[in-house]
Amino acid sequence: MTQVLRARRGAAEPGRSPGKAALFLLPAVLLLGSLVVYPLVYSLFRSFFDASGDKFVGLGNYEETFTDPRTLIAFRNNVIWVVVAPAVVTCLGLIFAVLTERIRWATAFRLILFMPMAISLLASGIIFRLVYEQDPERGVVNAAMVGVHDVFATPSSYPGARPRSGFDASERGYTSTATVSPGGVVSLPLVGYSPQQLPTSARPVSQPSAGRNEVRGAVWLDVSTGGRSGRIDPAERGLPGLTVEIVRDGAVVATTMTGDDGRFTFPNLGPGEYSVRLPSGNFALPFRGLTWLGPALVTPVIISSWIWIMTGFAITFIAAGLSAIPRDALEAARVDGATEWQVFKRVTVPLLAPVLLTVFVTLVINVLKIFELVFVIAPGSVQEEANVLALQMWQVSFGAGGDQGVGSALAIILFLLVAPAMLYNIRRFRRERS
């Protein structure tokens, strides 16, 4: 009798009607089938055919995938991403969540770190492309580096300038090919520098006269319009503050600086033949920062951008798990004499292990599918060095050549890499609910 009543009661409950349940589930099933199941089955079928889709090639596309150098680079970069990025984000999320647990403005701090999640990866990629621009006038990172560098290192006086002729270039600078004896005069015309950038103290230059036991000379910018090449013209100005060395047998005998009119003098020289050298420090190009988006640094730069974006996600989940930890366990450890580090290491982290593992696996899934940041941040010239599987799949399928057979094979490989992590998360969620 009890069973009959229960059966009638269950039949009367609308939530247990299979027909109505199927009716409510039908839109979700259709959507899931059209957006997930059908593309997956079609990609698997398409991966066994050639680029045209007419000829069956079996596992040929998969073989080409594992022998293509660009795809192998993408595999390598994906391994770097999986090993580095999720672990760093999880650790940062744990550290920030623990450190901000007891402060008043913890919510504001976490909100600020979570804000990058509100921006699409495409927009974030554009932002970081500008942040790491090599030109210090546009790139924030290089602008800061140049500012710090120039505080501790004085920039050269005339970057890019060079003698017109008659000098041998070396690492030490420009050394005159002709020698000069005491009483001689040296003319040093320079080019490669803008007259508008000359110091305000620069004055018109004039030819120095010979002096006894002295070597005199003038350094000027030989760029006047309509002037005579290699000779001083009335409109030309000297280069003040330029270091000049006089050399004998490879050794520097004396050093001097040019005056406002570009003239210099080496007094009290002994008899003999000398060469004049302009040290390379006069003309060294200014420090312009690092080539962040070059082949060597582009992958670390993109990973750092992704870490900045995803750290807020990790903090939010870990902070939620941290708030659920029984405070009695933490206080008991402190009462027993444990230090804060011991409490963190032996109590907090073990109790947070399920949450940390879930966050880590979720980030691994996200990393394996990374596409937008690499596509936007990496310039076209170095995109091959920063390539990942998702980007390689898009380039092969829709780029030059349009081989959707190989692209479908890459899609299936990417799915097989992501599937274990997804299944692990689904199992964990089910165990937690049961």
UniProtKB/TrEMBL annotation:
Residues 75-425 form the ABC transmembrane type-1 domain. Keywords: Cell membrane, Membrane, Secreted, Signal, Transmembrane, Transmembrane helix, Transport. One of its GO terms (biological process) is transmembrane transport. It is a multi-pass membrane protein. One of its GO terms (cellular component) is plasma membrane. CDD domains: TM_PBP2. It is found in: Cell membrane; Secreted. The chain crosses the membrane at residues 21-45, 79-99, 111-132, 306-326, 347-368, 406-426. SUPFAM superfamilies: Cna protein B-type domain, MetI-like. Belongs to the binding-protein-dependent transport system permease family. This is Alpha-glucoside transport system permease protein. It comes from Actinokineospora alba.
